[in-house]
Each structure stands twice: as structure tokens, then as C-alpha cells.
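Possible race condition, two jobs.
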Amino acid sequence: MSRKQEETARVAGQEQLAEGIFSLLLETSLADSARPGQFVNLYCGDRSRLLPRPISICEAGDGRLRLVYRTVGEGTREFAALRPGDEVRILGCLGNGYDLEAAAGRHVVVTGGGLGVPPMLFTARLLWERMERHDALAPAGLTVVPGYRDRQTVFLDREFEGYGRVLYASDDGSIGTKGTVTDVIRAQTDDAEVIYACGPLPMLRSLAGFAEEKRGAGLNITCYVSLEERMACGIGTCLGCVVKTTEVDAHSRVHNARICTEGPVFDSRQIVW
């Protein structure tokens, strides 16, 4: 886990990707320590909005963080009005990230659904770069499976195209295969040994079940899931984002874990679904 700190970031750019979906580029020293699967807290300029907004890291590097988010309230609408040169308070990098070392020499599937798609871009890029360098920790193969409701809700699709095999899933079949990301993975990636996933709870539960089926058939497969949950403090103090786990949490001494600190990424076997 990276050491967290609060600082003032400068807006380098912002663009709208789809209806209500924005891509915000920030200049910040936090970018150099960011890991795929982590998130940051953004603070509103309006001090009447006390709680920060947690946003997953879409990309990081060269002193810049890219955050892709949906406008859902006054706080995120304030972020959507930010322009180059503006400043915003930021706390990061928070939570744990994906264990990319687990991918070494194994066939990997990177998948996201809806607003769970953006953090998978960072994940896919780093894995693909390891393959390009013939790194000792490189996966043996990489498949990316973004999932969308329909063609009108698609964003970031072209950015995945350079990172291995890309298979799309959509609810209505207007892009890629009609069905869920689990349907696509089940039908077209029999060699999957590691799954990195982020998205809605039903999607993650389905993937966890798929991995359990494979293990029951004697296959060695690991599924890492990044849980999406409403957070208040984002640093583990308020206990507002706990999830029931199979192991006893060292902090609370019960079968719970704080998504913002022990997560948001978990081995799917750690979660009571």
C-alpha cells in the first residue's frame, strides 16, 4: 500500500467522454506512487460539502493522474466544471491495488463493467508493457473484457485496443457479445488463470462463482475483485464501507473488512457473497 498524503493538484485538462462521464487529468506527485486498483479522494471547493468523493485511478504516470468519473450529485458536478489551471485538494493514493505479480507466466483476463472499466485501463497497460519487455513478471497471455449496457454507454473502448485481445460484452449485443462479461469469459477464455475485475456487485459475484467452478474442476484460477461501495472518510475511520469476509479482520476482530483500507481489491475467496 502506498503512503497516503494530501496535496493540492493542478488541473491539466478535462474532457467529456459520454453522457455524464468525464475524464479529469491532474498534475500531482501522487501519480508516481499510484498502483492499479487504488483510488483518491477529491475535495470540493465548496466547504459545505464536507465529505470527499472517492474516484478510482484510471491512469497514472509522468506526474499525472487520470480520473474518469460520472456526475451523480453536486460534488461531482463541481468537478465537471474544473478547467486547466484550476486547483483541487486531493488525498491519495488510497486502498490496496491489484497483485500484478500473480500474473507472472499465467493467462490473464482484465475485465470491468460500467464505471468499473476505467481502473482496468491502468491495469491492462502495465501488464501489456511487461509482456512487451519480456519481463519475468509478464503474463503468458492477456485478454481484456470491457462490459457496457449498450453502444450509447461505451467509453474508453479504443484505448484498450493496443493491450492484447479485446472482447466486448453488452446487455443488448449492440457492441461485442450479447450478455455479461462472465458469459464472454466463460465462452471465449478457457485458458484464464487470473482474473482482475472491477464493476457492480452482481458482476463480481458472478465472476467469483465462475472462478469457484473452475477451482472445483481442478483448475488453478485466482480472481481479484475491486468492490465499489459508498465511502465517507475513505481512510478506514468511519467503518461505513465494511464487507463481510471469510477471515477475521485485525482491526475490528470480526468477519468484516473495510473496503477503503483492506480493499478495495480482494481475492474473491475472501468475500462472503
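Job #2 (started ~2 s after job #1):
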Amino acid sequence: MSRFFSAKYNTLTPYTPGEQPRDQQYIKLNTNESPFPPSPLAQQRAQEEAAMLQLYSDPTCVSLTSAAAKALGVAADEILFSNGSDEVLNFAFMAFCDADTPAIFPDITYGFYKVFAQLNGIPYEQIPLKEDFTIDLRDYAARNATIFIANPNAPTGLYLSLDKIEQIVKNNPCSVVVIDEAYIDFGGESAIPLTKKYDNLLVVQTFSKSRSMAGARLGFAVGCKNLIQDLNTIKYSTNPYNVNRMTMAAGVGALEDVDYFRGNCRAIMDNRSWTTSELAKLGFTTLPSLTNFVFTKNEAISGKEFYLKLKSKGILVRHFDIPRLTDYVRVTIGSAEQMAAFIRTTKEILEEMK
């Protein structure tokens, strides 16, 4: 860093994205992207909008907000779109946390929560998950803090049932509870309907995973209109034109192409089930997942060694070299062909070790 870098960021540890090597052609199962292209309708809408890129995008995202409100069963003033869900999560840290209202979240979860807290100078507490990587609801009862929970969680893939989410929200009436549902479309039940019942609940989702738009950067938050007004205050104080024209149009197309969306989600869930079953035959222990990835380990090989051997054979997975997680690798669920290649290569690696 330069000698001009602000001292207030001296202790900031940036988020580490999944690696994107260019040295060879890989089967990428490390960043939880969809193996399917965006909806044809989404592509068409984006292409049409490209002819007007000389004009600013609509800061109110009227067309997209209207389509999403209809699809989700909420009012237009109860939803806010953002440049990826990361942006709206950062807005939530800015809007609902301060020196008197810290942030709390699990110790094993999406790595950006800690970064956002540090970036904004917000005190935070990381609550240890139980030995089986599940949340102890008692740790989140009556807390004078803003609560952030990824559901299903990353990188474990574990899902917290809707009644347990409601219990956390109900037990913290004076605090905002943010439920990050990046992977909810792969078998979970969204907490969005609960936003009608609780004014302290904010639900965040993304188009990156189930709607095949990771490269477009589109996310959103749903909550009561007062919470959304708070987030809009932050948005209009930082970047009013945060969603570009092409992404906005693609988002409308993706929402309208319901059959394509549902078909891709079903395919991922089917491939996840097959992969989990095949891994079990090879001696792997895999956590129950309701995401587009699995978190798995095998006593016969360390997580790091498995990751490195897969990489040497052209398959990328994610390894977290930290205590409690080091034995595992996280494997994105790709197409049927990609998962067959992953299992075939895994068999080769295990055979070579004999």
C-alpha cells in the first residue's frame, strides 16, 4: 500500500474471491456460478438495452422493481435493487450498525460480513457454530445488535428452517435481522413472506446463482417500506445509478422466464443429489446441502491435498485453510457432465493413493 493510504484501514483484511486462474482450461467448481447461461429472454432484453448505453440507467429501477414485486408478492416500496447482493449487504451494515449497535454473525459464514464490519468501523461479534456447524438459537436471543445470517449458510450449505428464522426475528424486536438468501432457490423456503409480519426483518437475495447472472451483478433486499427507505438513503448518498441498463433489462427477462429458472434449479438439485450419492460410495462425508454446492471430506485425503490434486487434473474446487474447515472442500454443483468428470477424477485420485 502507498504512504497515503488512510490509517483507518490499516487492519482491514479484504475479502478473498475464488481463484480465477488463466494458465489452462479448467472445470470451474469453485465459485458457485451456474453452469447454465442466462435465460434467452434475459439475453435478448439486455441486448436491446445496449443500444441506449449513452443514457443513465433508471435510479428507481421501476421496470425491474415492478416485475420483482409481482413475482415475489411484495409492494414496490418493499424492495430495493443493488449492484450484486454484496452492495445491499454493505448498505445494511452502514444503515443499521454503529458504535452502539454492533453486528453479529456466525464465525463460519460468508466472509464478506467481517470485511463490511471492518470497512465501516463497526464493532462485531462472531458467534461460534456448534460442533456440527449448526446455529444455536440461544446465541441469537435478545441481542442489542444487528444480526446477519446466511441461509442456507456458506460454505457449509446447511439450511435453517423458516420457523427457526422466525424465532430469531421474534426474539429481537428492537434489532434488525438480515437473512442472506443467496442460495435459497435450491431447495429452501424464503423468509420473504415474514417481512409482512415483522418490521425488523430484511431479506437479501441475488440473481448470481439460480438466475445465472453472476457477471451481471444484480441483487436485492426485501423488507418493510421503512427499512427500504433507510437503504435508499444510503444508496442515493453513494451511487444512485448502481444498476446498469443492461443488467436491469436482463433482470426483467430472467424474472419473466419462469420455466427456464425452475428447470435450471431442478437440474442443479438433481445433480447435487447424484454427486452426494457418488461421493458417499467413495467414502466421503458430505454435509446436507440446500445450495448449489456441497461441502465434503474424506478421511483418506486432506482437504488441501484433494484440492491440489484436482487442480493439477484441471478441476477447481474451493479449499478453506482454516481450523474446523481444513479437512473439507467446497464443490460447486455444475452440469451433469461436469459432475461426472469430477467424480471420475476423484476416483482416479483415490486409486493413485493406494
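Residues 3 and 10 are 11 Å apart (CA to CA).
Logs attached separately.
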